[in-house]
Amino acid sequence: MCAFVLVAEDDVKQAELLRRYLRSEEHSVLVVHDGREAVEQAALRHPDLLVLDVMMPGQDGLEVMRALRRDSDVPVLLVTARSTAEDKLAGFDLGADDYVTKPYDPRELMARVRSLLRRAEPSGRRPVLPLRVGELVLDQIRHAVRLRDRPIDCTPAEFRILEALMAEPGRVLSRRQLLNQAHGQDTFVTERTADAHLKNLRRKIEADPRRPEYLHTVYGVGYKIAHDG
Asked: Which of residues 120, 149, 184 is at a domain's end?
């Protein structure tokens, strides 16, 4: 089964590892790196599963659990270096569905993911809806992008950048945030690589790349997507 999984993990390397394993089983994945974003995206996107690191800046994983359980029953898999019985009980008491400690065997983590998704399925999963901004549509399950019903051929990195931007229309993402989405923790990729990706995306999407309708530069900050048509 394909599902939409939200991963909240502040360690970029660990987040990329989780993304790769989840995508290897054809799940759609959105990665965030702090608790505030986790709460916002869970409310906005209604994931089928949240993989939640406990030790995060700002709101930690337990605070995220408190906020989520006010109005959401999304299955939550807690991931943490804390391994005492008290730590596990605190997570379960707040409504976590399962718990895995670091360092973990990725095969065990994926087995727990499959188990949680199977348990959640009978109650009726929300479909993973395509992302839409104006007439631009990104289908996470089919890994496809269309503009006015015209297919747009994107590289995997371009797709992940576009996915991150379309998940939050109007929000400005820095070059580094976009590169983390596209490549994970790759110290050999400079921030100018983000400019190259956006240049290629504009060439593929915009009628006039010099006057973009969708992909906008916010000088000194980064990029955002907004429909100006």
From this structure: 120
Per-residue CA distances from 183 to 12, 95, 132, 179 (Å) = 10, 33, 23, 6
Instruction: Give 202 or 176, the one with higher predicted confidence.
Output: 202
For 163-189, the pLDDT digits (tens) are: 889 988 888 989 888 887 777 654 456
Burial class (CB in 10 A: 0-12, 13-18, 19+), 88: middle
Q: Do the Cβ atoms of 181 and 31 come closer than 8 Å?
A: yes
- Are 113 and 66 members of one domain? yes
On whether residue 191 sits in a domain, the answer given is yes
Query: End of a domain among 120, 155, 184?
Result: 120
Mean pLDDT of 152-158: 88
pTM of the model: 0.60
Name the more confident of 55 and 147. 147
Q: Does 162 reside within a domain?
A: yes
